[in-house]
Amino acid sequence: MAHEITMLGTGNAFLPNGRHHSFAIFDRKHIIDAPPTALISLRENGISINEISTIFITHLHGDHIFGLPFLLLERTYISDREFLHPLTIVAAPGARERIEHVCEIAYPGSLGKILSTITWNENTDGITEDGWSWTRFEVNHNDAVDPYGYSFHSRQGAKFVHSGDSGPCDTLYEQIAQTELAVIEMSIPEWVPSNEHHKPSDIQLLSENNPDVNFIITHTYIDCEDSKFPVITESQFPDHPENVYHAKDGYTILWNKKWIF
Ligand SMILES: [Zn+2]
Fold this sequence. Notes:
By secondary structure, this protein is α/β, with parallel strands linked by helices. It has a single domain (3-260), classed as Ribonuclease Z/Hydroxyacylglutathione hydrolase-like (Metallo-beta-lactamase, Chain A, 4-Layer Sandwich). It contains seven helices and 15 strands. The chain has helices at 38-44, 62-65, 68-79, 95-106, 112-117, 170-177, 200-209, and strands at residues 3-9, 23-26, 30-32, 54-56, 88-90, 119-121, 125-127, 132-138, 148-154, 159-162, 181-185, 214-218, 244-246, 251-255, 259-260. The strands form two sheets. The protein has an eight-stranded mixed beta sheet. It is globular. It starts with a strand and ends with a strand. Bound molecules: zinc ion. Residues 59, 61, 141, 165 line the site of zinc ion.
């Protein structure tokens, strides 16, 4: 069986021109995070909201979870009125209460029914019904938002890692050393004084140190190259090694014995 990952959104919180918030789906049913632009990203890719069976939450910043009320509202009133499509949310302990609070603020009284049907999985590892084993690991980001990355391994042998939002750290880099594909954030330019995100020089070092791993850049600060509008922060892509791909929204990677770019 083949697999696929689609980068439904590739922008950071500030929405560079031509990008929705960073957002990925694999095998058209498992999503990683639910940003404010989740609904339009799914619509633009022809994915029905009721096809989503698992939501993996990396951390609790607004650009990663504030789309959840819209996805749950859509399922309740449009694509899953009978609540027939099971939905699992995988998130660290403590996330559930905060996410339910966000939903109640967004649509008071309207999301209680669907929230009561959700299966919450707070374990650090598990397996999806279609055979994806996953592990959640701590990363280097703002501790107030419980930051994690995920490592995935399919029954057929496909492997990939998602960084969530993270600066350079051993926990993430150990996972990347054991995988084939890393979806990794590059949120900030060199001049921003933070170690809680990756910069181009971090990606350069990481990709040179892991020449057998392919890197898909997401959560980027750089405008899409097709943009005709004045630059938000930056429009030039760094000159990275060949195993680094600067994805556009909608970019899909297939797996058939190996990842195909
Ligand atoms: Zn974040």
